[in-house]
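Observation: inputs received (chain + adenosine-5'-triphosphate).
Thought: call the complex predictor directly.
Action: predict_structure
Action Input:
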Amino acid sequence: MAHDILVVDDEKDIRELIAGILDDEGFGTRTASCSDTALAAFKARRPSLVILDIWLQGSKLDGLAVLDALKEMDPDLPVVIISGHGNIETAVSAIKRGAYDYIEKPFKSDRLILIVERALEASSLRRENRELKQKTGTPDGMVGNSSAAHQLRQAIDRIAITNSRVMISGPSGSGKELAARMIHDMSPRAKSPFVVINAATITPERMEEELFGIEDDAGNLRKVGALEEAHGGTLYLDEVGDMPMETQGKILRVLVEQSFSRLNGARKVQVDVRILSSTAKDLEAEIDVGRFRQDLFHRLGVVPLRVPGLAERREDIPTLVGFFVQQVSSASGIPMREIGGDAMAVLQTHDWPGNVRQLRNNVERLLILARGDADSPITADLLPAEVGAMLPGLASNGGGEHLMSVPLREAREIFERDYLQAQIKRFDGNISRTAEFVGMERSALHRKLKTLGLS
Ligand SMILES: Nc1ncnc2c1ncn2[C@@H]1O[C@H](COP(=O)(O)OP(=O)(O)OP(=O)(O)O)[C@@H](O)[C@H]1O
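Observation:
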């Protein structure tokens, strides 16, 4: 069935122009000239998409109020805003209120058609995702029942279907990258790549080749950059505040011109990439001291999203701990252990400066290193001293001391050694049967036992 698009604009010429362009593309259209007729048309039959002028002269309600009314009746309805030159701010606030995207007057018909097609695709994908989730009962990737976690998931859900750039802020390890992945996975770009560039770990010298790629002297492609790799999908600029000023200028140019040149290259390359950025730093303070470009900040942060630190949502800790116990156990075969009430109380009152990542690492370390009966819950005295010390009376506890000093990588090795030793014993030293049981080639098991000092 042809899509039914409702075009709302007080100017007859524009209304008819838009309807004409969309009719030619095979869409069905209806038009409305004011807020009352628009809402009546919506109620008479729910359209697949609404194109809405932000200025509705002579109307009871302005465009933003019509948007709110439509979204209240149907939160999933894709709405594309038409804005005149000079009211981009209002258009941006419309996106924050749930519009899919905006198109600035005067516009080319190609651009209109592209935005409409994307918005329709986004809306059907969102419906499919929701139906799939309902059918399979798949939990959200982001665990937590606190109101902060709910608000965050809601914001992600709303932002995902828009095409706008998002600046994700929050302390280290709080879940910024997870939020970015969820935005990508719920967007119409989900089937295209999600590419990560971490500005904190790439040297300034290498940053540009990583982003833009390189050509050799003969003009052949030597290395594909992240922007090209992410074509059709999403590029996640992690710790964007650590990006050198010079690269910031180049990124800005990419955003303005929507094209770039590879290093050594003369030709312009065009890509279609949505950029999500993250920062643990206060970028406004960085702007004040001249380390971050204000113009880039505004371009990258069309929609801001804040991921709160764990200390702001302690109620989520028990759910997160339960989730990580399952996750760690199914990923590495470490047996699941219940976390006792006293241990959970300690985990919940601890400050977690490294946020969710630190909590996850501690759960993994605990599962690996906590001794005692595997069927009995892990108690507070088995917690690492750095965490256990939070509990009165446990400050001088020696029980957890050894756990604290073991780095996670070593802890994994210890687990592997214990695990393999136990399996070899179980099969009376028969390496072939052990290898078969643990799913390894015999020779690989031999090598592993050697590195672990077991043969
Ligand atoms: N709400 C959550 N539910 C489940 N897992 C989470 C949640 N939040 C974060 N995580 C997990 O915690 C770890 C750290 O999250 P992530 O890498 O997204 O943080 P970040 O803020 O991007 O960190 P950094 O500032 O170091 O880049 C990841 O393993 C992630 O999957």
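Thought: report the result.
Final Answer: Residues 310-406 form a domain with the Helicase, Ruva Protein; domain 3 fold (CATH 1.10.8.60). The first strand starts at residue 4 and ends at 8.
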